[in-house]
């Protein structure tokens, strides 16, 4: 009898899986053949590829404007047409206003951050956070950026004097974290002088996670929320939840006891939202856990994006000396014209720096994938395909960036492709921070932080390659994390360098 029971269970499971993995066939959508139980993510599950690379390869294996695939057991659509992707995120946003990533405000409040929140809850919180990222606020942040930048030069000058090989991803991360800790959270970290500072340690732990459970956690947050619901795993490991909660609680207590300690920063905004008692604002009141969730989101997202932008730019310039010299000449000219002063307006004049950053963000986008969820049935333009409510949408930024149809010679690092006079790319295919209402709220702050770091370093130092130009990415990571960091030789610039 037991044998028959097991046989019956096996048959039911088999038929159930057959049904799940025939979803796209039943709906008449071209799709990539899945593998049980991975769907189309076997390489990711086996920790052979990063999220971005795994989805880029699915992009390259398929054709047409869209293709059905399976994120483990979850049917999803991979958008392969850049114009359609832009339309989904911008023009037809009303059909795709949610990300479809894991968010459980009750059971896992640390998952309820601005990135993940759905619908009106996201819209109200976004509108209240937007003033923190205005041009006026960025100008206010400039002195802090420059103060931390001076510490960056202090750390690097003795290393450059000896011609040391330095992991510039590590140095960049420490600079970025010191800025973020101060301007966003009112904390004074010292990552530049202390690599084991708690702010640096928590980010290192996050990107250095290993093991089956953490792999499930990452996949569940971004691609298949059902995995977290099924396993009962939280969206963040305990140590990181504890770090964010302790930091937020300490800030609240300090500012309540010392009103003069209050400052117009991101933490104060969250505290004000938490205290909100105005009529109609009850839904917007944040718990301490939700405040901590947003603190942690901006810490991690801001640090990873700006760190990558700075260090990948230096990596590419070290392999393209002519581009480095051209950028250094632009920096030297700007500093000479302005008496050595770096200001918000001065940086706006630097067209080649803008081109370099755009090319870096094309080739190394922060998350490498964008998520959206269909919130009501959507007829794909010029197609018979109807995307059903609840369907997950995936946009591979790496796939689009490496598609010659949009970016000729995509492996080539060519800032000149963004020169408006000789433009050599499809503008509709460039959206490294997303586009439309759910684009990255902190993109201008991240770009400003990256610009200051690059201007300071390239005005003082030369960088030489010590590793191949082609970067290998750590597996099972959501951001693009280079294996072994980005080591390069750093040397002081001489007077003759500056006259080239």
From TrEMBL:
Primary localization: endoplasmic reticulum
Binding-site residues for heme, renumbered to this chain: 440
GO-annotated molecular function: heme binding; iron ion binding; monooxygenase activity; oxidoreductase activity, acting on paired donors, with incorporation or reduction of molecular oxygen
Localization (cell): Endoplasmic reticulum membrane; Microsome membrane
Database matches in Pfam families: p450
Stored Gene3D superfamilies: Cytochrome P450
Regions that span the bilayer: none
Domain of life: Eukaryota
GO cellular component terms attached to this protein's record: endoplasmic reticulum membrane
Membrane topology: Peripheral membrane protein
Requisite cofactors: heme
Keywords: Endoplasmic reticulum, Heme, Iron, Membrane, Metal-binding, Microsome, Monooxygenase, Oxidoreductase
PANTHER family in the cross-refs: CYTOCHROME P450 (PTHR24292), CYTOCHROME P450 310A1-RELATED (PTHR24292:SF93)
Family listed: Belongs to the cytochrome P450 family.
Name of the featured protein: Cytochrome P450
Phylogenetic placement of the source organism: Eukaryota, Metazoa, Ecdysozoa, Arthropoda, Hexapoda
